Amino acid sequence: MQCGLLLVAVLAVSGCDLLFPEPEAPSSDALWLDTFQTYTRGAFPTENWIMSGNADAAGNEIVMGWETGEGHILQLKGIYGGNWSACAYRAVELGDLHHLRFRVRTSDVGGVGYHRYNAAVELTTGPDWTTDGRWLFFFGTEGNIRTTLSADPGPAEGLILGSYELGKWYEIEVSYRRSSDTVTLTYHINGERVGTIELPKSAQEEDLQYVGLYSGDTMAWFDDVGVSPDGNYEDGAGMQSAVVRAVNDGDTIALDREILGLSRVRYTGIDTPELTPAVECFATEATDANAGLVGGQRVWLELDSRTLDNVGRLLAYVRTSPSLAIDAMVNYRLLLDGYATIFKVEENWRYVDQFRDAQLDAAQNRRGMWSWCGDYAGADILIAAIQYWSDDEFVVVLNRGDQDVSLAEWTLSDDAGHTFTFPGTYDIQSWSPIVGISLSTRVVHSGPGDAQTLGNDLEWTDSHVWNEDGDTAYLRNAQGEIVHVYTYRGF
Questions:
Q1: What is the pTM for the complete model shown?
Q2: What is the 3-state secondary structure (H, E, C) of the chain?
Q3: Is the domain of 120 the same as that of 97?
Q4: What is the CATH number of the domain that holds 268?
Q5: pLDDT tens for residues 57-91?
């Protein structure tokens, strides 16, 4: 719904979007980030990438990663023990300074053939292995990450950037800087600077138009391949920026341009009270807080494994600056200030631990809705968080009062009546200044998975208790009186 008015200031208007003046045109950032999440599993991502090398193309496809929350990755498969590597190319607009990032995982499946690398990355003049280019790095078959394949590279030839282990992910950042007669490459591996090399500028340097990813005569995997124009490792390379045109509610905004074909954005991983169909407790305050953070401002969007919600909005972590610091993220800030609660979105796990600690901090310090909403908002003992979306479910019970309390014979139950009874003489200590799991918390686990050791852990059942499509938890004292109620919505 739109109000038909152009609001220059932030107004608390129930049921209406908060609109902001038309922004200046967005800056023309020559950047992209490919997380491979939007492509069809089992197929090569021809929407953006061109394949070369390995003529039969078998095994060059999007596959599901094997680490928790990893989602889709790009698999390149050379011809085992032969002389064909697999190559994938994507167009890039390079300037005199650019920052490139890659996640790379290598394998020796099939053995070593003609090529002396298990994975490599190159900037090229064309989308084919026969074209000229600038090699950025190799994962050599002898076990080192190199800037050249020379057997013993000297300062003028290249650098050995460090050794690597097969089967392990490495995040490589390369700062590419060219001048009138030289090219300077600065490398970071897993966040640590490992070296800089200065090389003569080649004749084709100004004509580099593609990023090339290569396997050797084996198999390699790539993820989070990105390009940014400013070469700063801490700049949020690969994020896409836009200006907020309207704030719809506490966790939804509209942008001045489309990203992945969408301009409406839902903050992933959190849930704020709703403005419609009825105004829920703290919905107006959450909307105003969101508008105060992002209204009319440029924001930077970071995407996770799942990019669309069930009603077609773009799912994103939204930042007020290109910094990668957690406190620059609006999702996190709304949790920390008590305007939101954790909301599980399938596959989007990246910041779940930080989000949980932010929610516990808000509950512990009675911020926002944690002191205002519900009949039990003033409770000293309360349910502060529920992880309901995994095989290791758990509920965090928190004491934010100034007295130790015995939980003997207290109960925790769900809407279906499943009930856990706290064991006798089980105390929970008074308010602690420690953020997150502390002596002021008790963690009750359920589900068939292996329970995380969070501290003060209690085992309930090997069965699932908490519904992913929404549920309510009830905490009762030894007399059977309700002390606190925690309700969450499903995705």
A1: 0.58
A2: CCCCCCCCCCCCCCCCCEECCCCCCCCCCCCEEECCCCCCCCCCCCCCCEEEECCCCCCCEEEECCCCCCCEEEEEECCCCCCCCEEEEEECCCCCEEEEEEEEEECCCCCCCCCCEEEEEEEECCCCCCCCEEEEEEEECCCEEECCCCCCCCCCCCCEEEECCCCCEEEEEEEEEECCCEEEEEEEECCEEEEEEEEECCCCHHHCCEEEEEECCCEEEEEEEEEECCCCCCCCCCCEEEEEEEEEECCEEEEEEEECCEEEEEECCEECCCCCCCCCCCHHHHHHHHHHHHCCCEEEEECCCCCECCCCCEEEEEECCCCCCHHHEHHHHHHHCCCCEECCCCCCCCCHHHHHHHHHHHHHCCCHHHCCCCCCCCCCEEEEEEECCCCCEEEEEEECCCCCEECCCCEEECCCCCEEECCCCCEECCCCCCCCCCCCEEEEEECCCCCCCCCCEEEEECCCCCCCCEEEEEEECCCCCEEEEEEEECC
A3: yes
A4: 2.40.50.90
A5: 678 888 887 665 567 899 998 877 667 888 999 99
